[in-house]
């Protein structure tokens, strides 16, 4: 016990916590998977609780989408509510007017948002920092005006009603049978695995090089223009898919006010408060910002009109006192090497204990 306390004092609690998680990763992942699957069948999983957890996972997915752009590539976007709205309206229009099934409509919603992300990413080749933020803010306002003014397609301020619920092999997914939770759980897990794969790939390393120093990355041979646009496309695709899912869980009804700038502020708050560049932080930030209005309903009912102001203050405080976020501590674990790299290093007697010609 004394040795353990000494280690915590010497290296810090987060150091010990991270190494504990790494040492027991398989068991913890299996436990979390079991809890996630069993949640809809537990006594606490009533309708309101399921909706809260569903919204937490939805905003965690939105956070992961923005995290690819801001946390990995270092480009700040204030207009992700625009991609969110494009995905939602695309899915809603395809299912209500063209009689598409929910699943292809969801995929097409992500693809349309990715296409718009590609077009929006073009100005990022010449803009950065504050100027890029202003462009994305303008994009969010443009999407908002289109949704309100294009009456023949979007129904304007009346929105779209009677959006059909997802079905698969005759089974309808809804809030009562835990179907919405199952869908967003699958989507958020797939998104987390995809983001993790991107981070560990050459694309993720290129994103991080651009984030740290774009000029140096370009001088080292990284095609910065290509990777910056790719970051926009991936981020917009994830956000568009999340928007498509939102179109069916909001009582089958969406309107332009569901995708205002305040939603962009909330998504940014999830990323910054949780931890830039991390996946675990997106779930923590989403849970924190979604649970507070539910845990303290009386306080937030009184401050409802000031809710997004509070989020803004929280965002500024996080940037001032803990810019890496609540769970965004710097990793002390060794950089993961591929099997081929380890074999090559062992062959050259570089790894500790490696003998020439041996493989690990």
Biggest β-sheet, characterized? 2 strands, antiparallel
Instruction: Estimate the global geometry from the Cα principal axes.
Output: globular
Radius of gyration: 22 Å
Could you give the order of strands across the largest sheet?
1-2
Number of helices: 17
| Mean residue pLDDT | 81
Distance between the termini: 34 Å
Polypeptide structure, described:
Helices cover 69% and strands 1% of the residues. It has 360 residues and is an all-alpha fold. A two-stranded antiparallel ribbon has the order 1-2. Strand 1 and strand 2 (171-172) form a beta hairpin. The model is unreliable at 1-11 and 354-360 (pLDDT under 50).
Question: Would you summarize the structure shown here?
Answer:
With 360 residues, the protein is an all-alpha fold.
Name its key features.
ABC transporter involved in vitamin B12 uptake, BtuC, 360 residues, single chain, 1% strand, 2 domains, mainly alpha
